[in-house]
């Protein structure tokens, strides 16, 4: 006798599979489902299996899916079999690892909610079979490549993803290209901004693919605040996106910080990733080109599967020497920040890491380094793939997240804007003192600095960091060190990491040291959720940013490695971790890390010099050259008809300096609660420049003049929206951060770059200024300065911003913006349909 709910579930699953097969097969093959439940059969040529027989042979839902999977394989329906295999993997996986935990459960042991989730996943994954042929063109091996210009790693990835390049020799810095993307990633907070960015569009929005949108609740949501009204809005947004888009990669709330498990289990070498978060660059640790952008940019890419890029310059950092075994990525990137500083050599560039010293760095160490390349001011950071990368990827359990890896490497004679050598053997424990991540000193120079709290967490703190910090704490406990009064918080980056730490007994060490464990999320690193530091409190943290008010209004934060935080948390004063680390065994550390990786179905990547290193087969990019790539700039191109930007702007100057960050322009809490530009404007510079709003709105200082790297920091396009909502008409700067510069055009706001020192000597606070937009001239104190705008910027200004362009052109928006609407790509890779 059949259990009715489970039998009806089996019927629905079979219909989903058959319906997808019917749409994909030719007239000689058919998969049919009868309407009479008792007579329903799975039919393929001469092979017929009744639903009843399949159902009764199956102990439970997982076994039922396995039987369907076997039938699909027997009949060479490999795409559908692979899709169903992904559903089976999720059924078998523990809940801590993003699965359903249904491995051996019988029909009677599975509730209706779980059956509905399996049905949803089957529907979503079956949809992905229509994308099985949508891959980049075949690549060539190193030996087969024709004569081309030497290219950097970033240039090769861009060329491979380009819809068209300007010349058969390859791409060069300054080329404007339309490129296909592989992944879009977002948080629950940036997803709200993404949706709002296209408000007013008459068409129903759909992602170009339902299996390449990684959405994770981590910024503001926390189990402790789920009942708050604003947080409910974020949670509902996650759930709605999941079902509306039939998403396969919706992570829900507090399963993982958006970057953590994405890098550990999804992204592959050679991919192009866009994310609505500035730390998207973390995925460069896996040798992908991962770029953070504003919400409108990323939302449009999600709908089209493409974006535009101006090919950037790259700088090379050659890592040489061997670090002490306990030196991880955080101390290495702090050392680099100490030497290069923010927004200098790396600004507007891709930072490529390689050299003989890279073999000593695990993918976790590389993650921390790439994660903080945005603090350097870089567009992104990326490691040249090697045996460590390949071993890490090969260790993944699911082949779908291994088999699209492309191992590119820069040509030996690739042209870099600059090259730097960094000796890893010289790296020690460092501290970045408030309020800047490049205000770096050796820990030994500031011993005894007192703190009110210690925080170990944020995306930049990897599993290896958490393991090492726990071992440092254990040494302190074994020595009987006293625990001083103070706050201690630990936040693992994902539930899988937390599970590993728990089963290995490491989380218990944290608890014994009075650390309070919270759910995976940004926590104090952003300070807008359940964890907010008190005004005036002083914290030592392993996070990546220590800007003013970052952890909470009026709070002070200093950043360092997790090991340094752990060592300092006994006395709540800055302590060099080396003394405690001397009693930590390297073999013990390696053993714990290996066991962490093995639970996930993989193996630890090679991090020691060995002749048995995994062989990497490097390839060359394949690209299309039709000589129709986008022209670079036309300073004379008119912007007549632009509804938003006046032809002439006459106002007065509000003067600012270098490195004005988006956290200062619009505080994080305002991003979480404000919906309109006007609401955001009420919080613009409310902490750092409290007189700014009055100066703009009442005194008429509507042209903001700043200097280097204006808009650095977070990717939040709310910063531009706040300025626009307040009435700022134009921003002039010596340079803009990469993301902020794109956000200006995307929001339909005029941003002008001027490098002439004379301009900044004349541009005093409250000075009258006139901007002739039509003729690209700025007049101040009887002196005229010229400026230029790119074609794409002018097109966006004409339309009134990217959202207006989307409403006008829909999914063809980038082809319409390119060269005034000329279709650039004529190959079959363009067309994605639902």
Structure overview:
Residues 702-755 form the Aconitase A/isopropylmalate dehydratase small subunit swivel domain. Residues 233-570 form the Aconitase/3-isopropylmalate dehydratase large subunit alpha/beta/alpha domain. Keywords: Iron, Iron-sulfur, Lyase, Metal-binding. One of its GO terms (biological process) is proteinogenic amino acid biosynthetic process. Helices cover 34% and strands 15% of the residues. The protein is α/β, with parallel strands linked by helices. The strands form 7 sheets. The protein has a 7-stranded mixed sheet, with helices on both faces. Strands 26-25-24-23-27-28-29 form a 7-stranded mixed sheet. Helix 25 links the parallel strand 24 and strand 25 (730-733). Helix 4 runs antiparallel to helix 5 and helix 7 (188-197) crosses helix 10. The longest helix is centred in the first third of the chain and has 21 residues, at 4-24. The chain is globular.
Task: Give descriptors for this structure.
disordered C terminus, seven-stranded mixed beta sheet, 30 helices, iron-sulfur cluster binding, Aconitase, domain 3, globular, 834 residues, Aconitase AMT8, metal ion binding, alpha/beta
Q: Total number of helical segments?
A: 30
The radius of gyration over CA amounts to 27 Å
At CATH's second level, what is the architecture of the largest domain?
2-Layer Sandwich
| Mean residue pLDDT | 91
The portion of residues forming beta strands comes to 5-15%
Here the CATH topology of the largest domain equals Aconitase, domain 3
Assign an overall shape.
globular
In the CATH scheme, the class of the largest domain would be Alpha Beta
Query: How many strand units?
Result: 29
Protein name: Aconitase AMT8
InterPro entries: Acnase/IPM_dHydase_lsu_aba_1/3, Acoase/IPM_deHydtase_lsu_aba, Aconitase/3IPM_dehydase_swvl, Aconitase_4Fe-4S_dom, AconitaseA/IPMdHydase_ssu_swvl, IPM_dehydratase_rel_enz
Keywords: Iron, Iron-sulfur, Lyase, Metal-binding
GO molecular function: iron-sulfur cluster binding; lyase activity; metal ion binding
